[in-house]
Design brief:
The chain is mainly α. The protein has 7 helices and no strands. It has a single domain, classed as Glycerol uptake facilitator protein (Up-down Bundle), CATH 1.20.1080.10.
């Protein structure tokens, strides 16, 4: 029914692309953040606040990843993720494989970014552990980069699909 909106950055791209209205966008973001907070509360009830904090997304200083490095990586990978989602969900050609394309794209993003940034590309995913685990290092970056990446991903998607004869 919802199209599987779990990520405010993806929902923002859908809003920009006029696939989602503003009130639905707001409701989705509220639900996404609530879901992330509830998931973190479940972890807290099963483990500890330190465990929840260990799931936070923070730049890996031991590898020399600065906030700016992490910001750019999260921005670029969110843009890529959003562009893939926009393309495969609107295309009759790719619709049957959308689940696989989106899942594999997210898997690749996590394989690359986990050691560097902890992998967010999803502000709600970062906010839950930050609030409940008390680990808010570089939180601003994980809130802003995916949302900016969403705009860039949408623009890239529009640029790529401009000449395909569809509505652009």
């Amino acid at each position: 029914m919802s199209g599987g909106h779990f990520n405010p950055a993806v929902s923002l791209a859908m809003l920009i692309d006029r696939r989602l209205d503003a009130s639905s966008f707001i409701m989705y973001v509220i639900a996404q953040v609530a879901g992330a907070v509830l998931a973190s509360l479940v972890l807290l009830s099963a483990f500890s606040q330190a465990f929840v904090a260990s799931t936070a997304t923070i730049p890996n200083a031991m590898l020399g990843v600065s906030d700016m490095d992490a910001f750019l990586l999260e921005l670029m990978f969110t843009a890529f993720f959003v562009a893939v989602i926009l393309k495969v969900t609107e295309s009759e050609q790719f619709r049957a494989t959308a689940f696989l394309a989106i899942s594999l794209t997210l898997l690749i993003i996590h394989v690359v970014l986990v050691p560097l940034t902890g992998t967010s590309v999803n502000p709600a995913r970062t906010l839950g552990p930050a609030l409940i685990g008390g680990e808010a290092t570089s939180l601003w970056m994980y809130m802003v980069a995916p949302m900016v990446g969403s705009f860039i991903g949408w623009a890239f998607y529009k640029l790529v699909t401009l000449g395909e004869g569809g509505e652009s």
